Amino acid sequence: MDATQTQPQPAAAGSLSWRLSAHPITLLTFLGFRISSVLVYFLGLWIIQSMCVFPSLYNPLHFGASELISLGNRIMIFIVTILLLAADFYYIKNIAGRRLVGLRWWNEVDPQTGESQWVFESSEPGTKVVNPTDSRFFWLALYLQPMLWVLMAILALVQLQFLWLPLVIIALVLTIMNTLAFSRCDKFSNASNLAGSAFGTGNIAGSIASNMVSNWFSRS
């Protein structure tokens, strides 16, 4: 048998394998934050429901103790999930987006008018080559997590767990905000690069065109 036939084929570029990542630590941390908040929320609810003790009608003290334990567990799950969501929001906005796909965004307030505007930043063409695996992981996780929280919201409504709706709404606001911001940032980057290349990236016209696109996206 030919020895070359027994050797495993290398994974194609863009495959969902963290070993192909240009920034594996950043990627794994990013995925960890993306997954952990959903897992803590889902597993926390499952554990609370599985450990639920039906109070005895003849023992009101037992009823009060069980309710107190359940309330403490719910508060702990709420706090831990909020902290993980905040860490995920900060990490993807300031670190993961910049390192994995070369994109970053923030919000500025005009001191004269008081109006807020989104500002988008992308790496200069030719200065950063985005790894296909990093890009695929990033965009899949970016769009998948809001869908999971929408599913959690539907489950909370169906199961009449209205106490968890504020937490789910906070999660939806944070995840959807990052998703919309990075989507617009990606469109800004593509439009800016296209404008610069159309007028010549190395001359004044290309620079003016790129700045015009940048200003339009930052105000929209």
TrEMBL record:
One of its GO terms (biological process) is protein secretion. It is a multi-pass membrane protein. The keyword Lipid biosynthesis does not apply. Belongs to the TVP23 family. Pfam families: DUF846. Coiled coil: none annotated. The chain crosses the membrane at residues 25-48, 68-91, 137-157, 163-182. One of its GO terms (cellular component) is Golgi membrane. It is found in: Golgi apparatus membrane. The lineage of its organism: Eukaryota, Fungi, Dikarya, Ascomycota, Pezizomycotina. It comes from Fusarium albosuccineum. This is Golgi apparatus membrane protein TVP23. Its main location: Golgi. Keywords: Golgi apparatus, Membrane, Transmembrane, Transmembrane helix. Golgi membrane protein involved in vesicular trafficking. It comes from the Eukaryota.
